[in-house]
Design goal:
By secondary structure, the protein is an alpha/beta fold. The chain is built from eleven helices and ten strands. It has helices at residues 3-9, 28-35, 76-87, 102-114, 144-154, 189-202, 215-227, 246-254, 260-267, 272-292, 307-316; strands at 14-19, 45-48, 54-59, 65-71, 91-96, 119-123, 173-178, 206-211, 234-238, 297-301. Strands 1-2-5-6-7-8-9-10 form an eight-stranded parallel barrel, surrounded by six helices. Strands 3-4 form a two-stranded antiparallel ribbon. Helix 2 (28-35) links the parallel strand 1 and strand 2 (45-48).
C-alpha cells in the first residue's frame, strides 16, 4: 500500500517526519543519527527535502557579475535510497520545480521508480533569496500542478519523448503541500484553495500542511477544504519552536502566526535550551488535541535534529 491508501484506512493517528539533508561535506551518518531515535515510533514514512543550491553574484571591478554557489546539499535520490534500504521504510523524496527542467525531472523520477521509491511530495520550491519572484528553469515547470501532471502522465506510461521505445508506466503516489494560513504569494485563502484543488484534481492523493501553532487554523483549513470539494487526507505538519528567535524568524519565513501565549512564554526564556523545552511542551499539547480529533497522521519537521521530536512522540504515541 502507498501512503495515501494507508492514510485513507487508518484508525489510529500515525507518525511521520521530515529530514533536512546535511550541507556539502556531511555524510549519511548525520542522517542516521536523526532517524535512529525516532524508529521506535514506527513512522509511516520519512520525507527527504530538496533545496536548490544557493547562488550569490560577486561583482568584479569591471562591473561584471560572477555567479558563485555558496551552499549546496546532496540530492534526494541517493539519500532516499540509503534510508529505504537501511530501515525498510517508505521514503518520500521532495520533487520541486525550481532548478529543474522537465527532462531532468523525468530522469530523477525514472531513477526513483527503478529504486522502488513510489511516494513523492511535490512542491514548487521557494524563491531563491537573491530573487524577488520564482523563475523556473528554461523548459521547467512554473507551478506544482504542472509537475503533478507530468508525474501522472508517467503513471500512464507517457514520457516527454512520445516515441520512446519500451516505455513502462510508473506507479507514483503524490502528496502536495497545503497552507492553513495561506501561501505567502496567494492574495487570499480562497485563491489558495483553488490552486490546491487543481493539484488534487490533477492527481495528488493527499496533503501535508505547512507548520502551524494554533490547531484551530488546521481545523478551519480542513473544513474549508471539504467545503471546496477537496476530500483527500490532510496531514497536519508540526514544527516545535527550538530557539528564542523563532518568535520572529518563523512568522517572517513561513508567513504564519504564533499564538500570543506561546510568544509570551518564549520571551520569558533565559536561553535557547529553555525555549526548546517550551516548544516541546507546546507541541505535545497540540499533538494530543489533534490525535483526539483523529487526524490521519502527525508529520514533524525535524530540521535535521530529532531530540525534541523524540520527546514529543514519546509523550503522545
Amino acid at each position: 500500500m502507498n501512503i495515501a491508501e494507508i492514510l485513507q484506512v487508518t484508525k489510529n493517528t500515525l507518525f511521520s517526519f521530515e529530514l533536512l539533508p546535511p550541507l556539502k561535506g556531511g555524510n549519511i551518518e548525520t542522517i542516521y543519527k536523526t532517524i535512529d531515535p525516532l524508529i521506535e515510533f514506527n513512522p509511516i514514512n520519512i520525507n527527504v527535502t530538496y533545496h536548490r543550491q544557493e547562488v550569490i553574484y560577486k561583482k568584479h571591478d569591471n562591473g561584471l557579475l560572477e555567479p558563485r554557489t555558496v551552499r549546496k546539499r546532496p540530492g534526494t535520490v541517493a539519500i532516499s535510497a540509503a534510508i529505504k534500504y537501511k530501515y525498510k521504510l517508505r521514503v518520500v523524496p521532495h520533487i520541486i520545480c525550481g532548478g529543474f527542467t522537465k527532462e531532468e525531472t523525468e530522469n530523477a523520477l525514472i531513477d526513483l521508480h527503478f529504486l522502488g521509491i513510489h511516494n513523492l511530495l511535490v512542491v514548487r520550491g521557494d524563491v531563491p533569496k537573491n530573487e524577488k519572484e520564482f523563475v523556473p528553469e528554461p523548459d521547467g515547470h512554473v507551478h506544482a500542478v504542472d509537475l503533478v501532471k507530468q508525474i501522472m502522465k508517467m503513471n500512464k506510461g507517457k514520457y516527454i519523448d512520445e516515441e520512446l521505445l519500451h516505455s513502462m508506466a510508473t506507479s507514483f503516489s503524490v502528496g502536495v503541500a497545503g497552507y492553513p494560513e495561506k501561501h505567502s504569494e496567494s492574495p487570499n485563502l480562497e485563491s489558495d484553495l483553488y490552486h490546491l484543488k487543481q493539484k488534487v484534481d490533477a492527481g495528488a492523493d493527499y496533503i501535508v500542511t505547512q507548520m502551524f501553532f494554533d490547531n484551530k487554523k488546521y481545523f478551519d483549513f480542513v473544513k474549508s477544504c471539504r467545503n471546496y470539494g477537496i476530500n483527500v487526507p490532510i496531514v497536519p505538519g508540526l514544527k516545535p519552536v527550538s530557539v528564542k528567535n523563532h518568535i520572529t524568524l518563523l512568522p517572517k519565513t513561513f508567513n504564519i502566526d504564533l499564538p500570543q501565549e506561546l510568544a509570551m512564554e518564549i520571551r520569558k526564556c533565559k536561553d535557547n535550551k529553555d525555549a526548546r523545552q517550551v516548544g516541546v511542551e507546546w507541541a505535545i499539547e497540540q499533538s494530543k488535541e489533534l490525535i483526539a480529533a483523529n487526524v490521519p497522521a502527525l508529520h514533524f519537521y525535524t530540521m535535521g535534529k530529532s531530540d525534541n521530536i523524540r520527546s514529543i512522540a514519546k509523550a503522545v504515541f
